[in-house]
């Protein structure tokens, strides 16, 4: 059987709870809603870091960030001994393309260096700015060729024209790639738009669709201020403030506007699949690298925290000819499992070192999706530069079971514990509750064992008994 094409659409910093068909009545996501109805949505999917580079390094290798030795934004190099899944898939016979952000190594003050990635089609745009030399940033060059001034548009009242937006450029590139003659080979296209990453500056015509007064606002209680004060020495991009002090509803409206543009532009790509007769043989995947606090608990943006809005992401598969339709699975999933599933879909054996598990038995209806993993893990190891946090490089881990979420800030001698069954939005920290000492100690022990077992690098393979 011929392997299917793979369209892998990855947004940047998109929360899990931003899709109409999955319960948000305030967004406008008809295209993504269609994927949910005709596909499988994993509603408890956790990234392996709340920060871009370590998360992307993780799902591009199938290893936890610490195991991949790549836990920081701003890193100079990437380990040469760890193959990227795109390279493995390309070596198996796929044509592979990449559009937009990649961010496995730093693109700060330089164009992002290419790795041994397997991509023969490469249209790179780290961010929708004009910060890189001409000829090294495909999106900025495209805007320039069309007579646009990207920096001026970003600062203008109307913001960037939708016709010149990076999300639109990504769709143009995707349409170009999908329409090419691939010589009878299956293809994988990885589309990485920058939105809805801050700054929240959607085109004005999209912003006008969403009114701050109509927004539900963040998950916040007054007690959050004191709680975040107790954690203020732990890295984060902003100190906690009340929703009205950080204009949280306005930010939420703009964030939803950016997602609406993504949805419209994704529709153009899917239309091209239909028009070229490739839709039936193309697996469509929609996900994001991590989430956004968006005012929850008084916090905006990202950093060393592990609240649901920041570490839980969308994960949707659509392939009606072979996968189930209109199925929502609430078992625990990691983005590492997306990595393993991509390899499985492409017909590859999953390497022994890989730390994800394939979801294809669930997608094909061979296994239920209500109990997938015993736990999910997320890491923050000096992930953001002090330029963004003013901090000193915190080290922390999250260990999430079906009921509990344990967070340990290893260099601050403090932690958090939440009973997500009773407290799904994490307002009641049980870490210091003497009545919860038994579950806390048990979870700390389990988390420590998991850390040792999953992240220890034992070195090269053994070739003899001694």
Shape summary: globular
Structural class: alpha/beta
- The Rg value, from CA coordinates, equals 21 Å
Main beta sheet, described?
A: 8 strands, mixed
> What's the total number of strands?
15
Question: Which ranges are low-confidence, i.e. pLDDT below 50, for 5 or more consecutive residues?
Answer: none
Q: What's the arrangement of secondary structure elements?
A:
Elements: E1 5-11, H1 30-37, E2 40-42, E3 45-46, H2 52-61, H3 85-91, E4 95-100, E5 121-124, H4 138-145, H5 150-155, H6 166-178, E6 187-192, H7 204-207, H8 223-230, H9 248-275, E7 282-288, H10 308-311, E8 312-313, E9 315-318, E10 327-329, E11 333-334, H11 335-345, H12 360-363, E12 375-381, H13 386-389, E13 395-401, E14 404-409, E15 414-419, H14 437-455
Parallel strand pairs: 1-6, 1-7, 2-10, 3-11, 4-5, 4-6
Antiparallel strand pairs: 2-9, 3-8, 7-9, 12-13, 13-14, 14-15
Helix pairs in contact: 2-11, 6-9
Description:
This protein is α/β, with parallel strands linked by helices and 466 residues long. Helices cover 29% and strands 15% of the residues. It contains 14 helices and 15 strands. Strand 13 (395-401) and strand 14 form a beta hairpin. Helix 2 runs parallel beside helix 11 and helix 6 (166-178) runs parallel beside helix 9 (248-275). It is globular, with a radius of gyration of 21 Å.
